[in-house]
Write a structure and sequence with these properties.
- By secondary structure, the chain is of the alpha+beta class.
- It is built from 7 helices and 11 strands.
- The chain has helices at about 40-50, 55-60, 80-90, 160-165, 180-185, 190-195, 240, and strands at about 5-10, 10, 65-70, 75-80, 100, 125-135, 145-150, 180, 200-210, 215-220, 225-230.
- Helix 2 crosses helix 3 (about 80-90).
- It starts with 6 loop residues before the first strand and ends with a helix.
- Mean pLDDT is about 85; it is low at about 1-35 and about 235-240.
């Protein structure tokens, strides 16, 4: 699982899809104070996006939205170019299935109908993804990125053959294979360093979306660690100061 705490300046920091009528759509904008509340607050999210989950994910990416994992670890959501293009086509009604946000009765991936311990993803119910560390200039100020890619479609930024063959994301990450930038590129992710930096490293996970009892959306990894869209602190001290 993702680490539940991180060391910053020698201090341990604490920390079913929505159905609405069709409407004229306007994309949210990011203010100087951070990500639009339309992307974070459940009531505003539902009123704005209705059942267009694909557009919601695209806008989270385009606005460099952060997800709060494990009570304080801010991960910027990044979609691969191919996944973003696919979701945009879905959002505009040009084919493909809308991503599913499961209801609060499905807080673990293992509770989904048809769940199996394998590497399969379909870009709607289950996604291929990676947690990446030491990414320069990642939004949130911690160097963390949560990347989602397009499965089953030869995405240049997607899972490599080796990642698919050795995937075991239902287990604890301490016993799993973390990949360096050099290894990613040697396995076929040719622009990894230019995209995420030469010191970045990561671990692949399958992800899905679900709601909680407060109607917040969570992006949840197969091992159970999950994050919800949240505004990143203005700086590393703001979480301490409130």
């Amino acid at each position: 699982m993702l680490l539940s705490t991180i060391l910053l300046l020698s201090i341990i920091l604490p920390g079913h899809s929505f159905i609405m009528p069709e409407r004229t759509f306007q994309r949210p904008t990011t203010s100087a104070m951070g990500v639009s509340s339309t992307l974070i607050e459940p009531s505003q999210r539902d009123a704005h996006y209705g059942d267009n989950v694909a557009q919601y994910l695209v806008d989270l990416h385009d606005n460099k939205a952060t997800f709060d994992f494990c009570g304080g670890m801010m991960f910027q959501l990044c979609l691969s170019k191919k996944l973003r293009e696919h979701l945009l086509n879905v959002a505009e009604g040009e084919g493909g299935e809308q991503p599913i946000i499961f209801d609060s009765s499905k807080p673990m991936m293992s509770q989904l109908d048809g769940y199996a311990r394998d590497a399969k993803a379909d870009n709607a119910r289950v996604f291929h993804g990676r947690e990446l560390r030491k990414v320069p200039n990642a939004e949130g100020g911690m160097g963390f990125v949560l990347q989602l890619s397009y499965a089953n479609g030869n995405d240049p930024e997607g899972w490599t053959k080796e990642e698919i063959q050795t995937y075991d994301g239902w287990g604890h990450d301490s016993g799993r294979t973390w990949r360096t930038a050099d290894r990613y590129e040697s396995e076929g992710f040719e622009n990894f360093k230019s995209t995420y930096g030469p010191k970045a490293f990561g671990l692949n996970h399958r992800f899905y979306l679900h709601l909680d009892s407060s109607n917040r959306m969570w992006l949840s990894a197969e091992d159970g660690c999950e994050g919800t869209p949240s505004k990143a602190p203005q700086n590393l001290f703001s979480r301490l100061l409130g």
